[in-house]
Amino acid sequence: MTSGVAPPDPPSGPIPLEGIAYGTQGLEAFLAIHLGDAHIHAAFVREGTLLPLTELAPALCAAYRASQGAALALPARLRRSSSAPSLTDVARGTSGARAPLGSAGTHTTSPGDPRLAHTTPTETFSQRSLATASGSPGTPGGTPLPFRTSPAVLSSRPPREPSEPLITLEESGCIVLLRRVRAYLVVCLFDAALPLGMARLLASRLTSTLSPELPRGEVSDVGEPTSTADSAPRSVVGEGDRARRLLELVSALAPEPHVARLRVSLRAGIPPAALEHPTSIGPEAVPRLETAVEEILGLDRAALRRLL
Questions:
Q1: Which residues make Cβ contacts (< 8 Å) with residue 203, sequence separation at least 6?
Q2: Which residue would you say has higher pLDDT here, 37 or 139?
Q3: Which residue of 90, 183, 257, 303 is surrounded by the most CB atoms within 10 Å?
């Protein structure tokens, strides 16, 4: 006679990010915090670093909101008078007021001066480069350039998608970098000895790696989290077997099988320990699991269910 004892509940807590953050120079902590309730969705803390995460997460969310409020007020304070010439107008010499002699936008050469061909305010750097490349008369040393770039070609390139600003907080012992990714605040804490430029570069790379794996959806300032990493209630009959087949499928077909479960964990908001026991995954978590597998494999719902 079997006892029918159910497996223990998996421990709740942040999803570990060692697979992404381990070995990063100067990195003390790497966090993904939900902006709705300051729930720590995923975290990496360097061994030996002591951080009060429960108090730190709400403080970082408040700092992000405060910086956003200050950023909204900046354009009004920095707005200049419409009568003041811009730097571009001064450089081109098209502003209403005359600039001092010898400053940008004015020239003391006469019309017959041969230097005028190289110092005309309306001539752009690209035009001078193209003239030099073609070896036009009056251009000394017409050395061909290895390539020619037309300004029209540069202007036809599609603009880069705008990204959330990177907010920097500097303290005596650490550098804190914040960037929003949908409903989450991604936080990188570096040792203060690391140069700020290197810290910003590493933070951008870490955020770019983590961003596709975070759950989809946005959140308002007082919104609720889209998912939590807490252990879910017991699965109903059939749901545990469905979750097991989904995990087997993503492990077999994912491009990088060794990190497939970590990606599922991050996207679905289910702790890795729970994925080790599919029968412990509750019925409300299985649809999130199915959506995460669809995104990782690039399949629609109908195609995925045909494979199950």
A1: 166, 177, 179, 188, 190
A2: 37
A3: 183
Phi, psi of 180 (to 5 degrees): -85, 135
C-beta atoms surrounding 96 within 10 Å: 7
- Write down the domain spans for the chain: 15-72+163-213, 239-307
CATH H-level superfamily of 15-72+163-213: Dynein light chain 2a, cytoplasmic (3.30.450.30)
Is residue 294 within 8 Å of 300, Cβ to Cβ? yes
Predicted pLDDT of residue 242: 87
The pLDDT assigned to 277 comes to 87
Q: How far is the CA of 209 from the CAs of 96, 184, 203, in angstroms? A: 50, 14, 10
Please give the C-alpha separations between residue 196 and each of 21, 68, 74, 177, in angstroms, as whole numbers.
18, 21, 23, 10
Q: CA–CA separation, 27 vs 199, rounded Å?
A: 8
List, as one string, the DSSP characters of 245-260: HHHHHHHHHSSSGGGH
pTM for the whole thing? Answer: 0.62
Distance of CA 100 to the CA centre of its chain: 45
Which residues are CB-contacts of 136 (< 8 A; sequence separation ≥ 6)?
142
Q: Could you tell me which of 109, 108, 79, 82 has the C-alpha nearest to residue 95?
A: 82
Instruction: State the pLDDT at residue 84.
Output: 55
What pLDDT shows up at residue 10? 47
Per the CB < 8 A criterion, the answer to whether 274 and 228 are in contact is no
The rounded mean pLDDT for the chain is 74
Band of pLDDT at residue 163, cut at 50, 70 and 90 = low
